[in-house]
Amino acid sequence: MRVVLVLALLAAGCAVPPDIRLRVEGTGTTDQLTYVFPGQEEKTLRNPDMPWERSGAKHGKVSLRLEGVHGTLTCKIIINGRQVRAETSSSGEAVNCTHVMAD
Q1: Which sign, positive or negative, has the C-alpha torsion 29, 34, 38, 39?
Q2: What end-to-end distance do the CA atoms of the chain give, in Å?
Q3: Which among 8, 19, 24, 29 is most buried, taking Cβ atoms within 10 Å?
Q4: The three-state (H, E, C) secondary structure of 77-100, written as one string
Q5: What is the DSSP letter of 12?
Q6: Which letter does DSSP use for residue 102 in this model?
Q7: pTM, two decimal places
Q8: Closest to 24 measured CA to CA, from 94, 80, 100
Q9: Residue 102 — very low, low, confident or very high, per pLDDT cuts 50/70/90?
Q10: What element of type H or E holds 32?
Q11: In which element (H, E) is residue 46 found?
């Protein structure tokens, strides 16, 4: 059903919104996680549970930053099932994943 809808939207000249996933996984923790999706306000979480994931569906810049990393954590940006960015911190340094999608 979804394939038919996507094909119908493409045939009508409508852009299909992307499936954007921000993901953090690993064996560590982080003191602070900050993320933003296009058209939304930046959000900051203190000591979030791991693994962590959020999703959005709008073109533009997406960003995910981890500060105060303890252990090993990897941030990932996945768009339409394809990983477009991944960064890992294993020595306590901050880690940042950012990706810009054109309209």
Answers
A1: positive
A2: 25
A3: 24
A4: EEECCEEEEEEEECCCCCEEEEEE
A5: T
A6: -
A7: 0.82
A8: 94
A9: confident
A10: strand 29-36
A11: strand 43-46
